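Below is how a single chain appears once it has passed through the pipeline. First comes the sequence as given, then the structure the pipeline wrote out for it. We keep one example in the README because the format questions we get most often are answered faster by looking than by reading.
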Amino acid sequence: MSKVSIDQQIEEVERELKYRGDVYPRLVRTFKMKQSHADFHIARMEVVLETLKWNKDNREHVIDWIRNKPEKKEGQAA
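Resulting structure:
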């Protein structure tokens, strides 16, 4: 699989959320999906989007943290 940038991942999740926003209401109206299931799955995807955006906005801090993370000693819990 080729590398997918964080911007492309964000775009894809936004596209998926738009798709769900278009499709789920019809599925609920036709009793093929419960409203609670639609809400649940949309909420989960919104959290994915928030996580990706947070990672993009905090990329440098995350890289610095990884670089400066103390070495784990043998027998030490994670």
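The helical segments are 6-29, 35-57, 59-68.

See the next section for the split statistics.
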